[in-house]
Amino acid sequence: MARFPKGYVKPTSSCPGCLAWGDFRGRLCHTCYMFGRGHDAAECAGCRRVQPLKWDYCRLCWCQARLGAKTVDGQLAEGADVRERLAAVRHQQLFFVGIAAAAGDGASDAHYRRRPTPPARRKGGRRGPPRKPPPAPAWRPDLGWRQPPLFEQIPRHFGRLDPADADLASPWLAWAKYLAHRLAESRGWGRNIRFAVNRGLAIVLTGHVEGDVIWHTEIFSPLRALDLPVGHIITVLEEMGIFEDDSEPSFEHWLVGRLEGLAPGIRSEAERWTRVLRDGGPRSLPRREGTVWLSLNQVRPALLEWSNRYDHLREVTRDGVLAHVKTLHGHQRRDQLVALRSLFTWAKRQGLIFRNPTSRIKVGQNEYAVLQPLLPEHVERSVATALTPAARLVLALAAVHAARVAQIAALVLDDVDLGNRRLTIAGRARPLDDLTLKLLTDWLDHRRRRWPSTANLHLLINNQTANTTGRASNHWISAPMRGQDATLERLRVDRQLDEALTHGPDPLHLAEVFGLDEKTAMRYADSARALLEQAAESGFSRDTRQGGNE
């Protein structure tokens, strides 16, 4: 499709299909475009033009035939048949685009029409007929005594069910619609989502009886093929207590791939350790899934190397660990050694090994480099990338208030106090500057216009979370700045470093302003002190050179 430059206005012209004169955007007027989508092109039996035909005649001939079948007052003559007048068409009466009334056979009239009077505006500003009343209250059907099934439930094939054959009189469907209406009111589902959810429930609950269980693997593919919101439908089924999630978690797929290539004995021991990290144990708390992924990824290179020589972890010696870590340097050595120490400590506690080969191997002190401030051009490029109200607000929260991505995603509406110009981030109230206040107001206006019925209390929402109560993902929050030199994390670090350079390298001040722990505050203070000393030395050297030249 041709693209016109911004501000281009297509001149008034004639439609090649119906020869009507007027303003329209495409090559054809809208009615001819829709007429052509439903009919094949061939030579017209009346005007001999190659056009989309309906019963061997083009749309222009249909317009003329319908015009000839009308009386003086513009109404169809009694007993008149438009199809009988098609063969008698010998001329064409042209008309203007946009003022012809649509005919019942897919053509258009050649007479002017008057716009119908819009229906009276109802109270509340809504036109048209009244809304459909909400479903009547319903509860779980009590069908009395029933014969228990003789065999286990046979898997149902929902993909073979035609939506037109759904049982709309089912009491289970009435209960589901009532629950769906309550969820829609509490979560702000729009009209299209409500209709799609009710349609999916009608398909899933057709033939449902007491005791049946609906499994995730049974309904996911059929509902997805019909482009229905599977997540919202599952929410209603879970509320009814008749749904079971039998889908395999993504963690299991990831774990199988990460353990591939290991010796069977080492594989089973590493798998047990990974599951203890995720689920916890008698003496250990469960870790976050991201921490579990990182830990297994750190020990995997060493386990792959040892799988070529050993069958179990108890065969690994201290010399083998030292030989492996000698090939590593910097943070890579430190991270892998910490993960290996966790693995062998767990194995020693479980009695899988006789001696911990990582004991008394020093990890070493992690020497942090001096933090460097961002260059102005890097910040300017990130500012130019923030094009949406949400992206501009996220940029300000990171660059002005030094908020982390997870803290930004967790903000709720109650954290915003526009009257007192205060914003609470991670439990700490901060004053709102003029820039953040303007960006926050712009985002709230956009949020109210874009999702007026949402029940999500989080400050930042998108198309996915507007119909739920959960927060936006960290990936969505940081997406606009991804790939830039000044990412959200670097902007946050630069803001804290700038505070240390402006007000002096005082760890107590940084801890009070940003809520940092003592080690992090001391790191920023040390970096600021080093930068200030470098600036002083470079200024002293410049003054000395200038004095010598004089």
How would the blueprint of this fold be written?
Blueprint: E1 13-14, E2 21-22, H1 30-37, E3 41-43, E4 50-52, H2 59-68, E5 100-102, E6 108-112, H3 171-187, H4 191-204, E7 214-215, H5 216-225, H6 230-240, E8 243-244, H7 250-258, H8 264-279, H9 289-307, H10 318-325, H11 330-349, H12 376-385, H13 389-399, H14 405-409, E9 416-417, E10 422-425, E11 428-431, H15 434-450, H16 474-478, H17 488-503, H18 507-514, H19 518-549
Parallel strand pairs: 7-8
Antiparallel strand pairs: 1-2, 3-4, 5-6, 9-10, 10-11
Helix pairs in contact: 3-4, 3-6, 4-6, 8-9, 9-11, 13-15, 13-17, 17-18, 17-19, 18-19
What would you say this structure looks like, in words?
The protein is mostly helical and 550 residues long. 45% of the residues lie in helices and 6% in strands. The protein has four domains: 13-112, no CATH class; 158-244, no CATH class; 251-349, no CATH class; 376-503, Intergrase catalytic core (hpI Integrase, Chain A, Orthogonal Bundle). It contains 19 helices and eleven strands. The strands form five sheets. A three-stranded antiparallel β-sheet has the order 9-10-11, with no helix packed on it. The chain has a two-stranded antiparallel ribbon with strand order 1-2. Strand 1 (13-14) and strand 2 (21-22) form a beta hairpin. The longest helix is centred in the C-terminal third of the chain and has 32 residues, at 518-549.
What's this model, at a glance?
This protein has 550 residues and is mainly alpha-helical. Helix content is 45%, strand content 6%. The strands form 5 sheets. A 3-stranded antiparallel sheet has the order 9-10-11, with no helix packed on it.
